[in-house]
Write the structure tokens for this entry.
Amino acid sequence: MRLRLLWPALLLCAAVSPAHAVIERKVEKKFPVPAAGAALSVDTFSGAINVTESDGDAIEITVTEQCEAKDDKAAAPKFADLDLALTQDKAGRVSVRADYRRKVTFTWETWPPVLLTFDIKVPRRTDADLHTRDGGITVGKLKGRLMLTNDTGKISAGETDGLVTARSRLGEIAITAATGFVDAETVSGGILVGRTPGGARLASSGGEIEAQQAGGDFTVRGDGSQVLVRFAYPIMRPANVATSGGNVVAIFDQRSAAEIAAECSPLDSVTARGLAPAGVPDGATRARFAAKLNGGGPPVLIRAAGGKVLLRGDPPPADFGALPAAERTGDAKVPAAEKK
């Protein structure tokens, strides 16, 4: 019996690889792009994608490839199975494609054998379509249309002059601001957006959703999500905020004009606080609540199935008139106790 138990241990020891070093190599390429605007597409099986803006007229790409091996000779077969293509079509669109040829063999190594990082500099006026199955995506301040998708890893975009579409299966999404419509959806991660004057649709299952300055046509859909929305002043378009299994905190500038209809579960409550200057007294009601802020305006529908609703009014900044228009709604600061 002792000999039988010893054999698996011997086999395991034999399978353990000797100490490996990290072997690294870089691929660099530069593409001139049209002055009217650039277009970039990245599609990779794995790896982080980092895009930063520049004042140049070219797209500069650096791909860092890393693998664990005893030496360069041992690393060569791993790098050889990596298919990497950096191309530009006749219209000037730059494409980056990376795939790894899978082999149906047993290995103790982690997958993928080669780790990638994409560092890309682009002109400020660039449309970007970025996809990685396993890795984060970070984009700086661009003027153009963004399409950002991954399975795992955080998606982050800076101030964008254009439309933003973001999709993640297990990662978080954070967007500083966008002049165009923001369409962000994640299966289980959280969503944080700043200014959305062009409107937004935010959806998550289980992750927290926060909008710091919601504007335009605005929609939230949460499933098991805590939701916090601060509406930009003035409210110009309809809004529809709904979650199941979570609470909703909605914050309004006390000068805002809107027609609010809020609903929650029969055993929970809708609470109004700080909205007296807008004509709505403080208090709590069961299940349903309707009110007109400052005589009424665009409809704001709020629903929390299995949760509570807090409607909060905040006074405008004391130096409101001195602030730039884009900053007049301030930042949403909500105590942790009100989020729950």
